[in-house]
Give the backbone structure.
Amino acid sequence: MDYKAAPLFTNDLVVFGILMGLLALIFYTGSLKGGFWEKFYKIVPALLLAYVLPAVLTSTGIIATEWGNKINGHYEFHSSLYYIASRLLLPASLILMTLSIDLKAVFNLGPKALIMFFTGTLGIVIGGPIALAIVGYFSPDTVAGTGNDALWRGLATLSGSWIGGGANQAAMLEIFHYNQQKYGATVLVDIFVANIWMAILLMGAARTQAIDRWLKADTSAIEELKLKVSRFVKKVERIPTLTDYMVMLGIAFSTVAFSLVASRDISGFLETNFDFISDKTSFFSSLGSAFFWLISLATIFGVLFSYTKIRNYEGAGASKLGSVFIYILVATIGMKMDLGEILKNPGLIFIGLIWMSIHAGLLILVAKLIKAPYFFLAVGSQANVGGAASAPIVAAAFHPALASVGAMLAIVGYVVGTIAALISAGLMEWVSKIMGII
């Protein structure tokens, strides 16, 4: 039985305080003008630091997301911070960041956002089989396994996660029946490699102009959207009062509450009445995910609010409040990455790194060919790899007004995730047979 030692701090309330202290330190040092800190934050974005520092604390045993004995693939004890942030603060941030959005301007961004998204999907679909073949050639023991122990089955769950999200990943596990005792290793690859790639994307966000010049990208539509939002903010800007904060929080969290109830009812109704959704092996199983409907409803309500007077609360700092929630979510995501775990499965990590490199390389190639802005590359990638939990984070790193673009693309990822993951799994099974692995 696997055992993971308890961290120094196991109380979620204490850990939350530590994370908030880190965020306060990051923002304080980032506000200092001149000297070391100003130069430091020109290289390292605050959002990236909010993500990396909790990972350092996890890696050094100060905090952790899970610990104790591993029973049936899960540890006895776990932190609830990420779950709360992703189910409460993420939808709230989407509502607050979207309520001032100009939907027409979003559509004016053109087809390149979708092109880059599906390029990212293609990179995941073909990247898995290629990475499996490369590592299998040099290290056959790493990819060895037959029956339910066959590695391609485990990697199929990874493709589901990296194209859609947790629901698609669960669907792949249900379809291919990978050995549950080995499943944790693929989850580790998912967390580590995906988080490393997210860190790279965030670093790139701080150098957007230079990257766009290299890509020869036309960023006029994105800049126009930013400009429209900025003009609107200046028009309605005011010093926020306590009433403003209470109303904004009330709008956000009451809408989240309704979305939570509705998302569970919708997913329950669909699973009860439609066999092709309740069947975890179905292409449409992700439509039975309550999280899918939660993110969808939060985004829809945010867009609807943008057609009412509620949008004027942007002048009181609605998107700034949403950004606070995003930073807290980022910190809880950073908690999930334990750098010390890398050494336990170096071969699998190499598969993940090669896989992600193919995904990234294809995105860069297509972006260069069609002259797509780096924003479309980053968000198109994260809408695949990170899904609804992190695509808005990367989008917001460019501008709070763009968070909804990340959410919308992530929703597309949920829909196509199972189909694309099945194609990738079929290719990986084919590669395994050719190489004599299974």
